[in-house]
Structure prediction request, 152 residues.
Amino acid sequence: MPEPQQLTISEAHRRFATEANNTAWKLIEQAKRSSDENQNLLRAAHTSLYHWQQIGDGVHLQRGYWLLSHCYALLQQTEQARYHAEQCLRLTHSEKVELFDYAYCYETLSRVAALEGNDDDAHAYRQLALDIADEITADEDKRIFMLDFNRP
Prediction:
């Protein structure tokens, strides 16, 4: 029987952050979720951000706040979605992030504005996200963003 793999603390945080993120995405991609699955969605997203806060850099945190904003928006919890979208925006402008991270940031701001009933801001953020997406040169990054952008 092989010896169990020994992880450093940093390796363990990275593994847990990644696995929690993947769990959240599996739940996001489900057409329907039970109440328990919705709670697990939030737990997974919070867990992922927690572990990235231990060992990640600014881009990991920006993406973690985006994920939380997205999850709260899906569950129509406007106040929490807004809070996490604002954290995402702050990090988008203060950290070195990829172009598609900007697109995702404005995508979540659009969702939050729509939840708040602010159609003008929702439309403006949506258009900004699409304009940025047009500049993404990596085909796979653009494809993934557009898939997520068009997901309800």
